Amino acid sequence: MFLITHLKKSLQILQQSSSAFTGIFFNVYCYIFTLILCFNSVVQAKQIELGEFRSGTVGKYIEYFQETDQKLTLEQAKIHFAKPNKVKQGNNNSISLGIGVKPVWMKFSVSNSDDVQSPYRLAIETPWLDYIDTWLVNDHKISRHIIGGDGIAFEQRPMPYRFYAFEHQFPIGVTDVYIRIESKGPLAVPIHFSNKEEAIKRDISAAYEYGILYGILFALALYNLVLFIFIKQKEYGLYSLYLFGFALNSLSYTGQLHTIFTYNIGPLFQDWLDIFLMITYSIAGLHFARALLKTQQDAPKLDKFVTKITLIVPLAMLAGLLFQQLIFSMALSFLLNTSFVILFIAMGVCALNANRPFAKIFLFSSVTAAVCITISTLAVAGILIPYNDFTFKAIEIGMTFEAFLLAVILAKQFRMAKMDKLVAESYARTDALTGINNRRGFQEATYSAWHSIARTGRDASIVLIDLDSFKQVNDKFGHDAGDTILRTVATCIATTIRKADITARWGGEEFIIFLPETPQDQAAVQAERVRVAIEKLQTYINSTPLTVTASFGVAGSEHNRFNNTELSVNAFEQMVKAADEALYLAKNNGKNRIIISQADGQLTQHLPKTH
Ligand SMILES: Nc1nc2c(ncn2[C@@H]2O[C@H](COP(=O)(O)OP(=O)(O)OP(=O)(O)O)[C@@H](O)[C@H]2O)c(=O)[nH]1
């Protein structure tokens, strides 16, 4: 009956759909569903034999049905279970029935024929189930009724545990276990059954696994929060929010948050908290991806859609909260979470098309996460993927892997930004034409040397250089030829001066040299070396060798005194001024020569022995 109804429904949808894809999808879907149900109809529920069964899920031992109208009593449920055509057989580790559905009744039997003494624990490992009743029946008599679920105050639950769980010493013979579950959230019911020692081992390994997982996530989140606070780049803040949101969401849906903090606030609060935490990380993740991949520039339509969906869905969910429409808001949160995965991939593809850095690694990480999320979703829904610990946790493994790769991207981005900054700073200090310092670079480079000289009472000098009749060079050979000469002269000066000296392009065809630890007479000697080097320099323009000369103005201290006062940092400006005056005289006195500004303000020509 169920099969026919289901097939009818599928066919109706198939007819309504005009797309070939949907048609193929539904054909495959119907086929798989038919196979599953045919398989179900021939399999009979087995008993759990305690002597053989130490630990595992019991989905395949279960018979179940859903209430239709009013709440059934145990006796009515027993009558229902007695009619084989009214019950279904579990075919998967977990029974999954959907969101906001009618309460479910389940039954399985435990046989203790070997007189196993160890108590067994039954745990229903979905923490959001609101009301759970279990009856243990021996010889048609109820031996125990265990009430729980997150709708029950924490102290009244059978065990102080994040799931509904209880332990029981099963007597010799057969015990029928009847379970009724009522919940507003998704009715996914993975029942784990194991002897007490195995259950404790399982708890310990879960504690380690979650400890590692949350340790990584919180450490990464905190680190990025600190980066955001100090660097003020929004990617770090959004990434941190994404990680915090994901970790809290995971803590919430695995029941751990509610066990520790919100255990007595009631199931409704927990359901609402779960779905809002779920969308928090999706929204933060999407905005992080927008900022990281510059989606606004590369894919403006997609970017607008992402911005809208991350605004409209939470607002609609808030409206749902206002009117207490949990199912409506829950469906929206699932919709956003599913879109989140798809949108992440779409944004990655756009970034890849736009050749954005990190697009490949981003896409790889989001596809991996999507695959893991799909594995967990299908496993919980009982479709194609078997439910087990690994498939249930695949979502966390995938998301942690993705978080790690995104952290790698951010680290690389940080490094790139630093390199860009260094390059930009270096450009700001460098003359674009000649590649030597510009004025700013010169001032930065001489700053500390100048302070140290002023402090320790040593000498320093300045040499100003101006190419002679450079206008004529430009006029005769063109501006490009002039540029080439400026470049070769700059290189010539930079390679002729001593290591500690600092040079720069001071203006159009003007250069400067700072000579630390150098009194002015020695500076004049160094200037002469440069003058000769420039004079000898041949620059080839269209295979024709060109030569230029330059005039020099030198100003410097003698015995730590300049202009009759002790050398101080302020002397720099005065020294440049004095060198400029000397240079002016060198030009007026016939060019290609060196004039020294004397300490007493006199200007004299430097006449080297070879001149
Ligand atoms: N090619 C080129 N020429 C430049 C650059 N900067 C300044 N100049 C030229 O340098 C020339 C300087 O001319 P003037 O100031 O008259 O000086 P001058 O011709 O060298 O004459 P004196 O300084 O008296 O020897 C001008 O023609 C400027 O256009 C540059 O970056 N590239």
Automatic annotation (TrEMBL):
Gene3D superfamilies (UniProt xref): 2.60.40.2380, 3.30.70.270
UniProt GO MF annotations: diguanylate cyclase activity
A Pfam entry, by short name: GGDEF
GO BP terms, alphabetized: cell adhesion involved in single-species biofilm formation; negative regulation of bacterial-type flagellum-dependent cell motility
Ranges annotated as spanning the membrane: 21-43, 211-231, 238-255, 275-293, 305-328, 334-354, 361-384, 390-411
Catalytically driven reaction(s): 2 GTP = 3',3'-c-di-GMP + 2 diphosphate
Domain GGDEF: 458-599
PROSITE patterns in the record: GGDEF
Cofactor(s) recorded in Swiss-Prot or TrEMBL: Mg(2+)
EC number per UniProt: 2.7.7.65
Keyword Membrane attached: yes
Keywords tagged on the record: Membrane, Transmembrane, Transmembrane helix
Cellular component, GO annotation: plasma membrane
Keyword Nucleus attributed: no
NCBIfam families: GGDEF (TIGR00254)
PANTHER family, per the entry: DIGUANYLATE CYCLASE DGCM-RELATED, REGULATORY COMPONENTS OF SENSORY TRANSDUCTION SYSTEM
Official protein name in the record: diguanylate cyclase
Gene source species: Litorilituus lipolyticus
